[in-house]
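Regression check, zinc ion case 290:
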Amino acid sequence: MQRLWWPAAVAAFSLLAGVSLAGAQRAAESAHPVYYVETRQKAMALTFDVSWGDKMLPKVLAVLQAEHQQATFFVSGPWAQTHPDLVKAILAGGNELASHGQAHVDLGGRSASAIADNLAAADTILRTYTGSTALRFFRPPNGDWSGRVVETARGLGYETIIWSIDSLDWKNPGINVIVRRVVSGAFPGAIILLHASDTCRQTDLALPSIIQDLRRGGWRLVTLGQLWAMGPAVRRDPRGSGVRPNWPPVEGASSAGTAPSSMAPGRNAAPRAAPGSPPVPAVSSGGAAA
Ligand SMILES: [Zn+2]
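Current build output:
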């Protein structure tokens, strides 16, 4: 019997070590931001960052209204303070309000108290619009994060959200480029990043094709809160990995959006994500945005 003890002990130890390793990995990942949601439904979150200007946002809201589409808007505190009518217009359209922090600076290297001050200042302003309804989501300026950012934000009631599909609309690369980047990168549970600050001059012009092309492909665009309810949040960055997460999607959930392109005359020029898992286009994560 003594000889059997050792293998059993080794097996038990390995099991415990494995469990604790998995636990440690989960703990490490919990200090990461969210990139997408685990779901096979053909749904993606449409999100905009807003930090300055009063020209682009009304145009974006007009497109959303015309398309009967809602989105999530990450707005910065100072902008919300100086543009009350536009914040109210965001909410009046049935859109979701989220925090883009206060000063638009990289927070990844800051202390916990500096991060908390930034978030709390924005929270105080944004709560004047949402009343008792707490905001749930925070997108750090420039997507710059650290474990301290994620955990400090969580302590204040916020989940830190990055994105999985970057339109790069803030570079004004051309309407078709913006549309193609978003549509060809589609995958279930993705979080799409656009901007509604005035430095972006093509976002409102690209938005109708983004919405219509995706709908024709059977995709549904939702708010982040709605996507959140579809599956667990994923804290691993899929960008640049060449892997399309949650693929293949579950077909047949939407009958309105699955018409073949031959039934949509005159709109065959825009590329769309084809079933069969093409490679994910290279997605840049660096650089400053609005
Ligand atoms: Zn920004």
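Comparison notes: The beta strands are 36-37, 43-50, 72-75, 96-99, 137-138, 159-160, 165-166, 191-195, 220-222, 233-234. The chain has a mean pLDDT of 86. No diff flagged against the previous build.
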